[in-house]
Amino acid sequence: MVRKRRVCAGLVAAGLLALAGCGGGAAKPTGPIKVGFILPLTGVFAANAQDERDGWNLALKDAGGSVAGRKIQTIFVDDASDPNQGLTDARQLVQTQKVDVLIGPIAANVGLAIRGFVASSGIPTLYPSACSVELATTEKTPNLILTGWTCDQPTLNFGKYVCDTLGYKHLTTVAMDYAFGWQVTGGFVSSYTGAGCRIDKQIWAPFNATDYSPYVSQIPQDTQAVFDLAAGSAAVRFTQAYQAFGLKGKIPLVGGGTLTDYSAMRSESPESVLGAVTVLQYADGLDTPANKAFVQEYHGATGKYPSYYAESAYATAKLLIAALKKLNGDTSDRKALVNAFKTTPFDAPRGPVKIDPATNSPIQNIYIRRVEMVNGVLRNVVVDTIKQSPPWGPLPRSRWEVQAAHYGRTG
Amino acid sequence: MQGFVEQTLNGLTFAGLLFLLGSGFTLIFGLMRIVNLAHGGTYLVGGYVGYSAIALTHSFVLGLAAGAIAMAVFGVILERGLLTRVRGMPFSELLLTMGVAFIMGDTALAIWGGDPLAIHMPGALDRSSRLGPLTYPNSRFVILGVAIAVALLLSYLLGRTRVGAIIRAGVDDREMVSALGININRVFTAVFVLGALLAGLAGVLGGSLLTLYPGGDSDILVFALVVVIIGGLGSLRGAIVGSLVAGLLDNYGQAYFPELAYFTLFAPMVAILLWRPQGLFGKSTV
Amino acid sequence: MSAAVRVLDRRPGWLRAAVALVLLAVAAIVPQLGSTFYVSLGLNFLIFGLLAMSLDLIGGYTGLVSLGQAAFLGVGAYGIAWGLKQGMSANVSIGLALLAVVITALVFGLAAVRVGGITFVILTLALGQIIWGLAYRWVSVSGGDNGLPISERPALGPIDLSDSAAYYYFVLVVFVICALLLRAIVNSPFGLTLRGIKDNEPRMRTLGYQVGLHKYLAFVISAFFAGVAGVLFGFFNLYISPTAIDFGHNGTVVLMAVLGGLGTLWGPLLGSLVIVFLQQYLSIYVQRWVTVQGIIFVLVVLFAPDGLWGLLSRLGRWLTRRAGAAPGVEPHLAERSVVGSYEDDLA
Question: Hey, is the C-beta of A388 within 8 angstroms of any chain C C-beta?
Fold first, then answer.
């Protein structure tokens, strides 16, 4: 049995065989395909979790809720952003609910806590939004694939743009003081200083900072620009304080994509974010037929503009469906399924995506966006595109690996 | 120097918000010996109610009133309906309010969703003023102004009125007040409702400063605890000083000792607890 | 049914032993249900049960309810994670972790036992927040927000604990040993003195007891068992992050203890069963499970102030009375009279 699976996987990799007969020789299964989706439905990330759920459901609706004659059944469970609970959820989904595929959590620490179980159980797993660079490895977790991004992938492509194209020669960074902030900011700083520009000051705000005024007040008056990394309500508080303290319009604002992603921008006032230039693998204002159709459909279904969480869950569902089509709906061979995930390039609203086999994370376009008012609505409009960036951006891969292992608090 | 002035202003205005939150908390604590863990939830839900009222009526003042009054009504229900049943058992009271805090946070999430919501003050209040080289948001001065007005009102209420005299006496010695034939239960309700009203008011104002989001209740509750511990139980003066110390410490700490940012609040609190467990202005009756 | 209760009630010792054996048997078959999910529910229950029982020693028996108990679980789990990261063996790491727990408790205890009542609650909350802050901030040691992986479980002689069923049995054995130790402590003269302090501290002081020292020792012993729970927790999840010791989790431990019934030792265990079930199981089926949890707490505080354990023993007494028999000496009255006579002896 074990040997047979291996042979099958090998054949899939070689692309030699239609897979209907693989996976134990049983007849093609006809029951529903079960998907376990771990999300922080309560707590700070609740809205992002709702976005992912909406995006996911939309993609399934598009596909008629089934693939190759099998219904897709999704079980959503709440991890409350607690690693211990996420781990129990994963065990419950895989061992008791017998799901065929696991879709991962939002919080990085939950994602990190689960991955040991993911590796040992062999369950095919996709993480749509957790982006920690530690997760981007095939060695430890061959069956875990990041379908969204690696945290530093956008910013590795951004520093040079800010330095050369925007021409801000020295700037100040303000970032949330935890692993996500370190990685996004670390990617930016390496690219920015690598292009010959200089960091004036680095300010770190605790992830649970309530009042942003003490951080905004520390920004030097003579700095040429500010790079900010904040997400969710922290992004709203930062942009609000930035404007209220008179810095908006005086010092240009650039940042990581979450700063003006729709997960925050729904609550941000126009005057506090207009003109901000940020970078991410997705832009709600991306002018392609695929994205326009997605935005229109999502807005029609939910009344919201899509955040990157919504897009990523939508894209992850697309990948799942494409991979299952390739396998003719057969989920019995886990290795074959993982392999199909890795070898099926897919078209997301964000553009074409393929999975880099070495890091199990996406090679995709990176968008530099500016917040503009389009027909009375705030949108992230694409001003430049880095085509098909690998996870290591423009760096040599070996250098990125060293760098990625050492992101931390600096300055 | 300019940075120092700005950080001091930040600390003072943040202290204003903390005072609105902490004054009710400390009176409830001092008079009724209740650690009201639902105080953060009252703040958050008050803010959300204010947000909805503003969205409906386009009036900030009505929003303030709605948030405050809704929470006052809630305070009556919580105090008369639930807390009276466990009166005199401090630990049961603490747990009861903890359970209520869970329910409030989750219900708020169910009603208002998880997106952060920002409240905007009307007109010029939402803009900024230039003070020499500084640009400073007017809304923060509004909050400080409201806090000062409330502080004056409270000190008048406590210092010059009969009810205030009863409350002060009750903080010092509850049994004595009961023995004098005063209906202490009515005083309890009044103080509890006052605290809830102030928390609701703080929620609407805080919504403009800090935004409203799931988890905002426990973030702010921690500050309220710090204020009360530094200032001391049941002391209005303690709440003022406690808010100032907490607000300024938090700002200076973040600005000048960012490495120790998590400890600038808690380490002094532990030190004060050890040196004067009753707080800087508390009476040593505990 | 009630006849059986009556019979059993006449022989409380026998009854208890029987109940304990049945429960142990139930606990022992959990891994045979064929899903590591049930094993992990069981592990959560045992580990948090131990944590809640450790809290009961200081909270229920000494009258000092700590809102920082999860911090010691954190020190235990971080201790092994750090030790293993430094390349130490699992056994050395465990020793190191427990040592760190005891040292932390010795230091915190100096501060904590000087105050009482609600002040103690808040002081321990602050101390717990400091540990939490360190876990977030001291990144070179703690890994910050991302936490630390725990690379391996120790081998117990020839038994490989990396299998989850084997680990479950190991935890079950450790749990039983710790529970028996805790029971021995609360029933020892030391434990009775603690109860005396809880009931009437000035009196115990007058009687010449070193009240402060007793409280201090109780604090440290309680922390030690919480640390053991932390070591078990760390090896269970093979991962530790600051979330496990945040404000909410410290509160959860208290809720477990109170829900079950403070000062009963087994009550907190029952409380942890209910809460683990709510958090890890109900959360899958009920979206508003936090509200359900809140409502349960409110109801328990209002209608079962002595916790579920108290409710159960009242139910037991009611059944006995309904059976129309003259009940024997009821267990909790028996306990109370022990304290009483002990105090009388002192007088």
Answer: no
